[in-house]
Design brief:
The protein is mainly beta. It has two helices and 18 strands. The strands form five sheets. Strands 9, 12, 13, 14 and 16 form a five-stranded antiparallel beta sheet that branches. A four-stranded mixed beta sheet has the order 3-4-5-6.
């Protein structure tokens, strides 16, 4: 029995027939090591391969990820952008709550394929104080229950967005924010947007304070995009 330069066994024409079973078994074992084995998810893989060998490859059906075992962990194979999840909100949302509340339609769930991955979070939010001039509204991006906004100070809350209408005829343009997060997990993770209003006013998304039925008062869209970036 001979082997290729990369260690794959094969049967030569000069080998005895008695060598064939051993060569076939060795080849099958070698394929198990270097082949890309499919599994339903990482838990199924851990059950089937409790002690992986460096160089093993696998694919996960739940995330469509291809990974290689580097001797310590399973790491993604291929491009740096491993997956993209997004949501676009085209309808309106408003609240008079002074406590942060979820904006319906601006929430996504992503299941990272590796704990070493980073998540690029980008949000475009058309936020407006609907009650009129001189009022404030604000918003924040959350990973599950963790704020990705600024550091609270005194009674100042953590936030990523803020608007203070001072124009005689208030308008708006989307507020944009991007950040890179490191959730360090392979469990499903939710990124979402919450907003709140100053007491006595209304915070609105995708709606102007005037909201008159005119072509120059458009209904715009807001969005959230998350991308998993391989380490």
């Amino acid at each position: 029995m001979a082997v290729t330069p990369v260690g794959n066994p094969y049967v030569e024409s000069s080998d005895l027939v008695a060598n064939y079973p051993g060569a076939s078994e060795a080849l099958a074992e070698r394929i198990d090591i270097v082949g890309v084995n499919p599994f339903a998810d990482s838990a199924a893989r851990a059950t089937a391969i409790p002690s992986p060998t460096e160089g093993m490859m696998s694919s996960l059906n739940d995330t469509d990820a291809v990974q290689r075992y580097d001797g310590a962990t399973w790491k993604p194979v291929g491009g740096k952008v491993l997956q993209v999840v997004s949501a676009t909100k085209v309808d309106t949302f408003s609240t008079t709550s002074t406590a942060l509340v979820d904006v319906t339609g601006l929430s996504v769930s992503i299941t990272p394929v590796a704990t070493s991955s980073r998540i690029l979070v980008s949000v475009s939010l058309a936020l407006q104080s609907v009650a009129g001039v001189g009022q404030q509204s604000w918003g924040v991006i959350l990973r599950d229950s963790t704020s990705l906004g600024g550091t609270p100070a005194g009674t100042r809350s953590s936030g990523n967005f803020a608007t203070n209408d001072t124009l005689v005829a208030p308008g708006y343009s989307p507020l944009a924010y991007s950040t890179v997060d490191s959730p360090a997990t392979i469990s499903a993770t939710t990124y979402k947007v919450q907003i709140a209003a100053r007491s006595g006013t209304t915070a609105g998304v995708n709606i102007t304070s005037a909201d008159s039925n005119n072509v120059f008062c458009p209904r715009v869209a807001s969005s959230i995009i998350v991308m998993e970036i391989g380490a």
